[in-house]
Structures are given as C-alpha cells and as structure tokens.
Design brief:
Blueprint: H1 2-14, E1 36-39, H2 44-60, E2 67-71, E3 79-80, E4 83-86, H3 89-96, E5 100-103, H4 107-119, E6 124-127, H5 134-144, E7 150-152, E8 158-161, E9 165-168, E10 177-184, H6 187-199, E11 204-209, H7 220-229, E12 235-241, H8 246-257, E13 262-267, H9 291-300, E14 304-305, H10 312-322
Parallel strand pairs: 1-2, 1-5, 2-4, 5-6, 6-7, 10-11, 10-12, 12-13, 13-14
Antiparallel strand pairs: 3-4, 8-9, 8-11
C-alpha cells in the first residue's frame, strides 16, 4: 500500500495530462485508442504491474478504462483487484474489445500465450517474460509471419507513450511527453535515458524496450522506420549493446533511410569476449559483435554516439543541433 501511495504522489507531480487529447500529437504503438489485457494477471508480477499500469492510465486519461481485464486459464468468471478474469484471450477480446495484450506468463508457456494472442487478433502483444527458450521464440517468429500482429519483446520493459498509457514495467513518472523516439535493448538504460531526456526538456514521443534476447519480435530497423514516419517524433535515441549485428544493420538503415537526427549509445565496451553479460544476446562471439565495431558503424552513418550512459540526453541535443533544430 505504501509503495502504491508513493508512486501515486510521483505521478501527480510529474504526469502530463492532455486536454481532451487536443495537445496529443502522435506516437507509435500506444495511443488513446489502446485497450489492453494482461495474460497472467493472477500471478504476483502480472497483478502488480497491471495495477501500476492502471494507476498510470487513470492519471493520464481520467475516467477512461485502458487496462480492461486479464486472462488466466481456469479462473474465468472471477475478479482480481477489480480486473475481470477470462479463460482465454478470445473471450477477453469479445467481452472487452481489447486490441493489445501484455504477457506475464511463465517462460515454459509464454510462446503458446503469445500465439493465442495472435490468434485472437491482437494488434500488439508486449511480452515482458524473461527466460523463454530460444527455440520457442523461433517457433513464434515463424508462426507470426504474414500475420498483422506486432510483437514487442520478449524480455523487455515494454512500451510507453508518456501522458497516454504504459504497457510494461517501467516507472511511469520518469517519462515525460516530448518529441524523441526512444528504442532500447536495455530496460534500465531506457529509464536512465528517459530521465535525461526529460531533464534536458526533450521528453519522448514513445519509448520502446525491444528486449535483449537473440530472437525478438520487433527490430531496431522496424522501429526506426515507424519513428521516421511519425509526425510527433523529431529525433531518435537508440540504445544497443554488445552481441549480434542488429546495431550494425540499424546503422546502415539509418544511413540510407532515416532523415531525422539520431543519437545512440552502445553498452558493453569493457565486456570480455565469450562471456555473456546480462542479456542472453549480449555476448561477443568469434570476435564479432563488439561495442567498437558497432560504434564505428554508427559514426559512419552520421549518428551522434554518446560516450557514456550519462551522455545520452546531451547526445540527442547535439544531434538535433547539428540538424539545425
């Protein structure tokens, strides 16, 4: 109870309330039309973060239901802390009109939960769960080909459009509405970047944690394209890390297709080769995936690279200044 009260005080201090959405411009993924459910809502983590998401939405959109229920097989027809519980995602969609799902299902069953949400016609699925087997996610990825549902995650903090709604585990009060699109592999660096962007007066249009697993639903490139097309986004901050080549591919895409100023930070400069650092995908293998080669690729694409986590907000300012903004 005390934790919830403290959070409410922070939201009251920091929250931005659109006036009938007349000053809400644009964003990606989460908007005033978002209505979502939580798969795994009766679990401890699922319920706690559902409560936090509901509280944030109530501060942003008073009188409007944004988180409309949850799913736990076998517990349909019950309620938990005022949330109606359904046996299946299909039942929840039919009863509530939800178009988005937040997933807190345990790792062994999470792939099937994502697929169930896809089959129910969800527009967006945000998978928070960490530790899903890689082969399970390969199966999900193959199943989703050609289907309209977009998956964010897994192993991610979620998505937030400040002043509208959050779907995930990020603390809402550190995010302020603004014009910078934020894409990050790291949850904690997402929070740090959001705080810095607010402190320098920029804020975020939308912040997206894509997850740090080897197989994820939405890539840097896809989100870069969304932010490029979003009229509410004027600049982009991308946070990557060692392992894989996603950041190098993103740098090439930025060079060829992105016309908005971009800043970036790559975590893991001091990581030893062959040792996994935090995320399952954060490992330098065979001499590739180093921070150095990613930074070099980003600089070659004219991206403003932050030298340290403390420099992320200032890097966005430099990128915008260089673009004459």
């Amino acid at each position: 109870m005390q934790q919830s009260t403290l959070a409410t005080r922070r939201w009251q201090n920091f929250i931005y309330r659109p006036s009938s959405y007349t000053d809400w411009t644009m964003s990606i993924l989460v908007s005033p039309s978002t209505k979502f459910i939580t798969q795994g809502i009766t679990g401890r983590a699922g319920l706690f973060h559902s409560q936090q998401c509901r509280a944030y939405a109530e501060q942003c959109q008073p009188g409007k239901q944004v988180l409309v229920g949850g799913v736990t097989p076998g517990k349909g027809g019950t309620e938990v802390d005022g949330f109606p519980v359904f046996n299946s995602v299909k039942e929840a969609v039919e009863a509530t009109g939800a178009n988005t799902s937040m997933v807190f299902v345990p790792p062994p069953f999470c792939a099937d939960a994502i697929i169930e949400a896809v089959d129910a016609g969800m527009e967006l699925v945000v998978a928070i769960t960490e530790g899903i087997p890689v082969l399970d996610m390969v199966r999900v990825q193959q199943y989703m080909r050609g289907k309209p549902t977009r998956l964010i995650g897994p192993n991610c903090p979620g998505v937030i459009t400040p002043g509208v709604a959050k779907i995930g585990i990020m603390p809402g009060y550190i995010h302020t509405p603004g014009k910078v699109g934020l894409i990050s592999k790291s949850g904690t660096l997402t929070y740090e970047a959001a705080w810095q962007l607010g402190n320098v007066g920029l804020g975020q249009s939308t912040a997206v944690g894509i997850g740090g697993d080897p197989v994820i639903g939405t890539s840097f490139i896809e989100l870069l394209q969304m932010f490029q097309e979003d009229p509410g986004t004027e600049a982009i901050l991308m946070i990557g890390e060692i392992g894989g080549n996603a950041e190098i591919q993103a740098a090439e895409f930025i060079r060829d297709h992105i016309r908005k100023p971009v800043a970036a930070f790559i975590a893991g400069k001091t990581a030893p080769p062959g040792k996994r650092m935090g995320h399952a995908g954060a490992i330098i293998s065979g001499g590739s995936g180093t921070a150095g080669e990613k930074i070099e690729a980003l600089k070659a694409a004219k991206v403003e690279v932050a030298e340290s986590p403390a420099d992320m907000g200032a890097a966005v300012q430099r990128a915008m200044k260089r673009a004459g903004m």
